[in-house]
Amino acid sequence: MTLRELLSEIATPDRQADRVVPPSGHTAWLTGFTAGTMAFLAVFALALSLAAGRLADRWGEALERTATIRISAPEEQMELQTQAVLDLLAATPGVASARALTDAEEHALLEPWFGSDLPLDTLPIPRLIELQEEGQGYDAQGLRQRLAAEAPGAILDDHLRWRQPLATAASRLRLLGTVSILLILASTAAMITLAANASLAANAQVIGVLRLVGARDIYIARAFVRRFTLRALAGAAAGTAAGLVAVMLLPSADAAGGVLTGLGFQGAGWLLPFLLPPVAAVTAFLATRAAAFRKLKELT
Amino acid sequence: MIAFDNVAYSYGGGELLSEVSLRLTPGSFHFLTGPSGSGKSTFLKLCYGELLPTVGTVTIFDREVHSLDRDEVARMRRRIGVVHQDCRFLDHLPLATNVTLPLTVTGRESNMQDLSDLMAWVGLSQLADALPPSLSGGERQRAAVARAIITSPDLLLADEPTGNLDWEMSLRLLKLLVELNRMGTTILVATHDLNLIRSAKQQVAARVLRISHRRIQLAGADL
Ligand SMILES: Nc1ncnc2c1ncn2[C@@H]1O[C@H](COP(=O)(O)OP(=O)(O)O)[C@@H](O)[C@H]1O
Ligand SMILES: [Mg+2]
Fold first, then answer.
1. ABC transporter domain: from which residue to which, for each copy (chain B) (predicted)?
2. What is the pLDDT of residues A259-274, one digit of tens each?
């Protein structure tokens, strides 16, 4: 089955061939409606999947590449331990770079919590060292042990404790979205198969006459297939349009809002929903074709 | 053209036809007679592959029917014109479109002149645009005959084609069949109308197959 074959089968305007099957009011409407509803749902599943994917990437990727070492030591040992930790990091495989945050940076970090007029200089604030990973990353366990030996006041905070469950949840959510889309597709195929079977059964006499005068199965099947494919395409286009409007009407994305307010499309992601109508059409095409050939064998 | 070798057929109960061996040679004209329910329609269905023999072999155009796939059956049907006993049509399409259906499904154009000649011959010119459900039994039969012969088939199978026709129309139809036969079409007509057979015998070398006691025999000259 090539794409060209598919296109020619649905696009060739063989009006004669289409007319041999009587127009069927309600199955036509139901097929379009089903495809539309499913496309509408698929738009949300897609949006969910993409948003969850972005979160998973953000949490997993950005945080995974950095870690912080916190040094709490008596004033007079601070410089010494900081230098020891930096030397140690410089010699640790998997660590691209490391640097101590300046006082100004630390103040900036604390300001939201304590206000700007806090006399930070007088407080024993831990020194923070930010490190960037590279390649496969460093061996956290080994690094912790060496830190304990060389700088007892240093604690490695690799964000794992809180990052991992979030990143896992986000990827699960993405997976859930993808599975939903696949299930929606499968249901569409199932429902269109049922509708096609009903339509074929209702037209048993037509099929009998066509076979009697020498029509090949492909000729008869085509009339049904083209019909269902076009209906699914039209229905899914309407459903997708409605879904996109609904997504656009959601409160606008906000970086801090996470899944709820980030549920939308960004950049090239806006193009993905436009794949839904053609995918629905291909699904309808394959489902109806299979149903038609099976039913034709059964009927005559 | 068609050969039956030791064929038997049953719909699931006892055998309806048994030990049928016969040949329809190209260009021949046969009638098939027998009491109602004796299996005339069944025999015709065996002749165009709608039914497959339960015993023995049926060979159509030198192909054993059991060996044909669905596309080959379709291609074989294009060489056979069939007039069903319960003439079925596409009820949503006008009569003229129904009559040209055998051409349409094979992607052929219908010659308008041929079509109107044919419709005139079977007396349906006025009804070309009518929908099949609005026709009388006799009109349906004539339309079915027109549909069966529009492709100039090699073989014409007609199941009680004059069942609903008055005598005048029956003779007219017979004339059409005789003419087709003269032009080379092999013809098999199931009928219990002995007058029709007698009338035919005056015009053409028609032979009569008779079904009795599940066997099919070639009847003598006396009918
Ligand atoms: N599809 C079928 N299933 C079961 N029995 C059938 C079927 N078609 C016909 N019969 C039976 O087979 C017998 C012969 O039918 P048919 O060939 O139509 O006879 P005829 O055309 O000579 O009147 C009849 O008794 C009929 O009831
Ligand atoms: Mg009969």
1. 2-223
2. 555 677 887 788 889 9
Q: Which ligand is nearest to the CA of B210?
A: 1
Rounded Cα–Cα distance for residues A95 and B104 (Å): 76
Which residue does chain B place closest to A218, by CA atoms?
Answer: B71
Its ipTM equals 0.91
Least CB-CB distance to B106: which of A214, A217, A297? A214
Atom of ligand 1 nearest to the CA of B42: 17
Q: How far apart are CA B34 and CA B218, in angstroms?
A: 12
Mean pLDDT across B33-51: 93
Q: How confident is the model at residue A133 (pLDDT cuts 50, 70, 90)?
A: confident
* DSSP label at residue B89: -
Is the pLDDT at A38 greater than 90? The verdict is: yes
pLDDT tens digits, one per residue of A188-203? 999 999 998 889 988 9
Instruction: Mark yes or no for CB contact A216/B70 under 8 Å.
Output: yes
Specify the DSSP class assigned to residue B207.
E
Residue A99: other Cβ atoms inside 10 A: 13
Task: Report the run of H or E that residue B140 belongs to, with start and end.
Answer: helix B137-149
